[in-house]
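Entry for the shared binder. Reason: the reviewer on the internal report wants the predicted structure included alongside the sequence.
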Amino acid sequence: MARPRKPAGRRIGLALAGGGPEGAVYEIGALRALEEALGGVDFNDLDVYVGVSAGSFIASCLANGLTPTQLVRAIVKHEPGQHPFVPKTFFTPAYWELAKRAFKVPWLLTEAIWGAAQRPGDLTLRESLTRLAEALPVGIFDNEPIRRYLEQIFSIPGRTDDFRQLKHQLIVVATDLGSGREIRFGEPAWDHVPISTAVEASTAVPGVYPPVLVDGCYCVDGVLLKTLHASVALEHGAELLLCVNPVVPVDTRAAVEAGTMRRGILIERGLPTTLNQTFRTLVHSRLELGMARYRAVFPKADVVLFEPERDEYGMFFTSIFSFSARRAVCELGYRVTRRDLLRRRRELAPLLKRHGVRLRLDVLEDDSRDVWAGAGLPPGTGGAVTESLERAVARLEALTGTLRMRVRSPRARPQAAAAAGARPAARRRSRTAASPRRDSAPDTRTAGAAASE
């Protein structure tokens, strides 16, 4: 069906990166801040939505009419007609996959021993035992609950699980494991796939979730190819593209130098933390390089990226299994994005104005605003969030004896920044890749700088 379009020069898109469940929660907080501060932007009425991995989960909800405010409420309460945003949706063990692989162990072991005995001069027993690698599961969590969750909320009247029935363009990006090529669910040839299945495929992080079989293709996380796939939105005509990326590597140097964090803490916390930092570093370095070419390829497009700073330790040292930590990450996304908008107001205001968007300084300068109260939740819903997270980190510190950096509250942040010293421009969290300005001189720090791909 034909999709209605806004007038020329007013085409706005949204691109959301991954980051797992905590990344999705961060994006909800960031989107709530943008919803408040950007006058003239309706996040349920954009021209094009592009989501990859966890970002596809949020993008599909927005395209289906769920507002950022509703998503905020879903984190802390179960509304009538909705479904709770809970970790078990994302972290249900893949019992069938684990059992199937375990069942293969005796056979593989027997074959390995038999093969070594049959060819003693060709294969050693150790070499034969490498076949046991086939018993390793391709994913430890089941992604079917993610599909069912979305299928349920998209079955509510007024919503749809069919890309072709959406009012606006939604594209969910996954990777074909068999060819290493991009699959764009929502575009012709792939728009017949249910949205819930497309999101299941896009969130299939190798080793975490098993690949999803769709039309003969085993699909995995789209982040394998690009971090944001922002170019997809630009190819669909977005002239103002808002991007949110929660996947930023942590930088512990300032904390180590200040004596508030131990050197080598990432290694001391074991393999999961080391792999997490490695993944974030790889993804973010690619992100910084990816959109440097956009000014030349899409000279009429303005691309604005929002992401946390590298010393936002609450984003890195947080377990999303904790309810209070989930709220803290949402609050962090809200607070960081508001602070970024206010800091860059002189740069962003004229850029946004060209697209009919007003930066609401009255909202950004109102320090009394709170993500929970703004979402219609009772006062105090998030009042003790940071304190709860600090207690959780303190308990972790007591267990490991390694972490002494406490998650900083908003009031403590200026003092911490002063102690650490000013950050170099290269470490700032948000950049803009913009076309040449007609009404102001280019900001050489951000205009045309690396953004995200």
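Summary line for the report: The first strand starts at residue 12 and ends at 16.
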